[in-house]
Amino acid sequence: MERFEAFVFFIVMIVWPAGFTGLAIAYSVLVLLTAMIRIGQFMYFHRLSNT
């Protein structure tokens, strides 16, 4: 989840308050997914640099 996508989520939450719960859950899932991808990338490149 990059900065642009976060701003889009926040704007949609402001414009469409009825969808806040679903958008907040989707946002949280995407943030966690992005964090797991970044950690995986770090571990992969760390292993490559040690060989």
How would you describe this structure to a colleague?
By secondary structure, this protein is an all-alpha fold. Helix content is 86%, strand content 0%. It contains 2 helices and no strands. The protein has helices spanning 3-15, 20-50. It is elongated. The two termini are 31 Å apart.
Any idea what the shape is?
elongated
Annotation, overall tally of beta strands: 0
In percent, how much strand structure appears in the residues?
A: under 5%
Structural Rg: 15 Å
Biggest β-sheet strands, sense, barrel: none
Oligomer, anyone? single chain
Overall mean confidence score, pLDDT: 93
Query: Uncertain spans, ≥5 residues at pLDDT below 50?
Result: none
Count of runs of 4 or more consecutive helical residues: 2
Proportion of residues in helical segments = over 70%
- Sequence of secondary-structure elements: HH
Structural class: mainly alpha
How are the elements arranged and paired?
Elements: H1 3-15, H2 20-50
Briefly summarize what is shown.
The protein has 51 residues and is mainly α.
Features:
51 residues; mainly alpha; 2 helices; elongated
